[in-house]
Amino acid sequence: MISTAYLDVGQQPSGEPARIPVITIKGQEGGPSVYLQANVHGAEIQGNAVLERFLALCRQRPPKGHITLVPMANPIGINQKSGEFTLGRFDPISGDNWNRQYWFQPDIVAPFCQAHLTQDDNTITQAFRGLLQQQLEQRLASPWGVKTGQHLALRLQQMAVEADIVLDLHTGPISARHLYAPKYARERARRFNIPLTILMPSDFGGAMDEAAFSPWWQLSEQFARLGRAFGVQVDAFTLELGSQEKLDVAQAERDAAGIARYLEVMGCWPEGTHKVAPETLHACDLNDYRALYSPCAGQIEYLAPLGQPVPAGAPVARIWHYERLGRTDDLYTEVSLPCDAIPVLHFASANVQQGTELFKFLTHTQPL
Ligand SMILES: [Zn+2]
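# zinc ion complex -> structure
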């Protein structure tokens, strides 16, 4: 059974509500609770197409479990146009990244573990989820108020906290498809069939995937310190499904199948229901995911094809200095890397100042 509701996540100065669609797929009993959202960054529209294709798969073969889809999850960001472009990565008033405003206080974990050490897994799961819900409610009800971006994030997080599986769909600027996966879910991460993966630690930095997995992972780690085994109860990933300002429905269909294939191992469909053409999968640790900053200003020729390994010393970008036009030397600077790497994404503009983040690379890569 598929139904749509609308949720207010803010209010515009004109008094109009900032409103998001929430699509609920109520499948047969016995499956997980799954939450997917897209487009929290305004220019990153591809995830909406993936959700549309994913919903089509659900209509074709109804899944087990309870699935919530939130396309266009940031109605303020998507309307943040400047000239031809959509900005929508940062709140234009505060400058805060829309995807760093989720809420978790790690200091709740240790006292919770002490208080629940002898209880069974089910009781612990329910009690901890209740505690997380309570934290969000308290935060929203602060007598001092919360920022616009926090209000949006908290309303989204109230839905996500109910789920066993949270998938946040983004894109890079100009980008190859890549995935942020918590280390404990490495094996399952292969199922998405996304070629480049960054393996995440249990720290919380304010993003949705971390807000979903960090509490449960830190809970598991703290119980382990106290000598009690308690597995991580929630899977969460950020899927970066191409470039901003771009819609590719054919690729969206393939990525929707990858998501469904991952959800097969989580119990939504029988194994083998969805097919993908396998890709070569590379991974590295978050610490080895490196930015390359422009050594000087200029106009950039991006040379390294995204997703393809480049050896140390090979030029990845040529920075042109057209203010020197007329001279015969020093008209450009070539940039290379000190180690082998795989370019994941690059800056969206060819016109940069010194210190601009030109590229991001996987280094010290390994097969996923
Ligand atoms: Zn994003």
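# post-check
The mean pLDDT is 97.
The CA atoms of residues 168 and 238 lie 5 Å apart.
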